[in-house]
Write a structure and sequence with these properties.
By secondary structure, the chain is an alpha+beta fold. The protein has one domain: Alpha-Beta Plaits (2-Layer Sandwich), CATH 3.30.70. Helix content is about 20%, strand content about 20%.
């Protein structure tokens, strides 16, 4: 079955709590860089929550928007990679082959969303934090680019289970860590090519928009504009 994995984010629901950021770190073995590295601009968050003000003073309101890899159908990062470490897979994901990456950072420079990060150091987790690793995800080393892939390890686990049980995947059967952790249910994940899925239904909303839609990258992440 052909699938196109995508996500819808309801900006009216997002409270900026950053539970998605914490869950992404835990699920994907992402290290924290510390104060010194952060001061040099060397952050390492596959998801960041942008804050912005809406309206005119004094009638202003603080809004939040989670930003991560948009899984673009026409991704500028793919065409600049000299070793084909990043590519578009048949399920609509902008995949990343870590052991092929040579760290040129061309993809990070080409990305208009600034959601790719370069590993400047070999991450170290002091005991007992080293026991928290997710065994389904590699621990990346210095010199490579990394980013969100909608928790592809969860996608593959669910696909293999459904195949073993000789059935199709059910909508909502699994979710990336960020969606699972969101207390406001602001994020919905699923197959955009399945007209019966919740994510496909929400993508047809008259509130639907895409981040930097004018650059023509055709993202698979849709945002629902705030109305309240």
């Amino acid at each position: 079955m052909k699938r196109q994995w995508g996500m819808v984010i309801d900006l009216d629901r997002c409270t900026g709590c950053e539970a998605c950021v914490a869950a992404c770190h835990a699920e994907n073995n992402i290290a924290t860089v510390g104060d010194d590295q952060a001061a040099k601009g060397r952050t390492m968050h596959w998801i960041r929550v942008e804050r912005y003000w809406e309206g005119e003073f004094p009638d202003v309101r603080l809004r939040y928007q989670p930003v991560f890899c948009q899984q673009c159908a026409d991704a500028p990062c793919e065409s600049v990679c000299p070793v084909y470490a990043t590519y578009h897979n048949p399920e609509g994901l902008n995949a990343q082959v870590y052991n092929r990456c040579v760290g040129t950072r061309y993809c990070g420079n080409a990305c208009p969303y600034n959601v790719r990060f370069f590993n400047f150091f070999n991450p170290v987790w002091d005991k007992p934090l080293n026991l928290q690793f997710n065994p389904d995800v590699s621990v990346r080393s210095v010199g490579i680019m990394e980013k969100c892939t909608f928790c592809i390890q969860r996608i593959k686990t669910a696909e293999i289970k459904a195949l073993a049980e000789k059935r199709e995947l059910k909508d909502g059967e699994f979710n990336p860590a960020c969606v699972q952790s969101c207390p406001a249910n602001a994020m919905v994940f699923g197959d955009l090519d399945d007209p019966q899925s919740e994510v496909a239904r929400l993508a047809q909303s008259n509130r639907a928009t895409k981040l930097l839609e004018g650059v023509g990258t055709e993202p698979n992440v849709i945002c629902l504009r705030s109305v309240s």
